[in-house]
Write a structure and sequence with these properties.
Elements (H helix, E strand, L loop, with lengths): L1 H4 L3 E5 L3 E6 L3 E7 L2 E6 L2 E7 H5 L9 E4 L2 E2 L2 E2 L2 H17 L8 E6 L5 H12 L4 E6 H8 L10 E6 L4 E7 L2 E8 L3 H16 L1 E2 L2 H11 L10 E8 L5 E7 H24 L3 H10 L1 E4 L8 H9 L3 E3 L6 H11 L1 H4 L5
Parallel strand pairs: 1-9, 9-10, 11-17, 17-18
Antiparallel strand pairs: 1-2, 2-3, 4-5, 4-6, 7-8, 11-12, 12-13, 14-15, 15-16
Length: 337
Amino acid sequence: MFKLLGRDLAIDLGTANTLIYEQGRGIVLNEPSIVALRQEGNRKIPVAFGAEAKVMLGRTPDGVKVIRPVRTGVIADFEVAGLMLSHFLSKARKKSHSLLKPRVIVGVPSGITEVEKRAIRESIEGAAREVKLIDEAMAAAIGCKLPITEATASLIVDIGGGTTDIAIISLKDLVYSVSVRQGGDAMDEAIINYMRRRHHLLIGESTAELVKKTIGSAHPDYDAQEMEVRGRSLTSGAPSALNISGKEIREAISEVVSTIVAAIRQALENTPPELSGDIISHGISLAGGGALLKGLDRLISEELNVSARISDDALAAVAEGAGKCLDSMEIYSEVLF
């Protein structure tokens, strides 16, 4: 009977993807945080959401716009984010057959303002009976099964689309946390700019993302990879294609990667000496889609002399961690706000 009354949900509202975890069932939705809209007068009419809208990126007819309502981990377009969330929530709840509105936990970047917190709460309040927030780095640490309840330090780096959240956690509390507004999207942008500047080739967001996933890397070991990149030539205006090496893409995204490594180094420098020993023995845990960049774990290990490992399900770590809070409220209630 309890299951019919309401299964609570955990949401990872990411710049790139939105994941929904349902209590007792795990991840029930994983869709790109993208909406395709048609503007009619003052009204915004949604045409497609998620994966369906992502396919339209750079290919839309006149009058249809593809929007990412979440930028750098916070809501940039309140109205569109509300439409997207209510669509995703109703899609997730359709599968659960519950009668009551669920309680919802949402992961947010560390250091967001009260105004940004309120925007997230308000965009979900209509579909939930109670909204709680959790720091994304804390949720990722729980999702990576780190011993956050013990008196030992864990260093988590959650590299998302819009932000990289870094935190040192001990005894269910953040000893140090920082959110850098650099992530997977900044890498895509760097690739677009590099192709335009170096090869006079104009490429779209989807192509840049494909290049990053195929031959993008942070370590010279992957420099020999090659792929054909297609776009529009800026010199002739005609469609054009050329072969690009992994080395070029590594150089293109090196500034973003360096920013992330520098932020991790700063976190290590701000660690109390007693906890530094714990981090040396446990290493650095990497989560988020950006952690899957080839060779990033090796580069971090070499640059900082601390072992780094990618968590088992890096993409779902925040949603899984927030979901575990639903399952064990008595243990994790202090980490919610």
